[in-house]
Amino acid sequence: MTTSAPPAAETSAPVTTKAKKRPGDVAFSGTALGAGIVILAVLAAVTFFLIAQSIPALTADPEGTQFLNGTPFLQYVWPFVFGTIWASFMALLVAAPLSIGVALFISHYAPRRLASVIGYVVDLLAAIPSVVYGLWGALVFSRILQPFYVELNERGGWIFVFSGQPSPTGRTILTASLVLAVMILPIMTAICREVFLQTPKLHEEAALALGATRWEMIRMAVFPFGRGGMVSAAMLALGRALGETMAVTMVLSATGVVSFQVLTSSNPTPIPANIALNFGEAYGTGTNVLIATGLILFIVTFAVNAIARWIVNRRAEFSGAN
């Protein structure tokens, strides 16, 4: 008696069904893609413009070129690069601890009503035009700081940065840096505040449950989580300081010197201030020279952002930047 084998089980290929796209999803994704393409296109156009307009200045004879006056371009632009970095560094040095402290006070110390008021006031500072900051720095803030500069020179003149004859007007590179610090304070404070508020509550409660004080909890839970966000905020604020024009222009005059002294009348001049002060008188190849200095500023800003992104990516494992 023979028995027939049972029929083989029929195998069917898995059926994949595509999710139906709603018109709103298609419109949103298309808009987001278009916005990203527009940003890249604008960045590429700016880069092409700067390079194309800088070539005549880089290839021209320095002897007959306005602003160069026989000086090679790199030698001409170096003092302005130094002034840009020096002023922005001092501004960030002042603004960073203040911003982190204000952000911590708003997020972890102040009562809710007071925190909302302080947060609103800080955000309001970002809406003030830079020309207003420049007028305030040149006409009011510099006069307030001038007696302090004289006292600082008398007591701390043995330190190189505070040596030299103090400016009688108070309009120095240090005044310009302090004005820049006030300008970048709201940007960095707002970003740090949002990052600190995103710290997981379980991390904070665990630290407090182990007997940590509020400051120890912030040091062990909030700062490690917000490290990447703080670096990003600092670099965004630094980018604002690097490209600021009007405020620095109204406080300083273009001298083009390389000096670490911050109280004297001979001050390093940032690239944006030099362009703003001289562009009205530029003609011919002189215009290309100023545009070429703008290309240098573009490269410096891009390098700063690239370094910041590298730092954030290295610290991204336990960070609010994710």
From TrEMBL:
InterPro entries: MetI-like, MetI-like_sf, Phosphate_PstC, Phosphate_Transport_Permease. It is a multi-pass membrane protein. Keywords: Cell membrane, Membrane, Phosphate transport, Transmembrane, Transmembrane helix, Transport. Pfam families: BPD_transp_1 (PF00528). Residues 81-308 form the ABC transmembrane type-1 domain. SUPFAM superfamilies: MetI-like. The keyword Nucleus does not apply. Its main location: membrane. The chain crosses the membrane at residues 26-56, 76-105, 117-139, 173-196, 289-312. The keyword Transferase does not apply. It is found in: Cell membrane. Part of the binding-protein-dependent transport system for phosphate; probably responsible for the translocation of the substrate across the membrane. Belongs to the binding-protein-dependent transport system permease family. CysTW subfamily. NCBIfam families: phosphate_pstC (TIGR02138). This is Phosphate transport system permease protein. It comes from Microbacterium thalli. The lineage of its organism: Bacteria, Bacillati, Actinomycetota, Actinomycetes, Micrococcales. The gene is pstC.
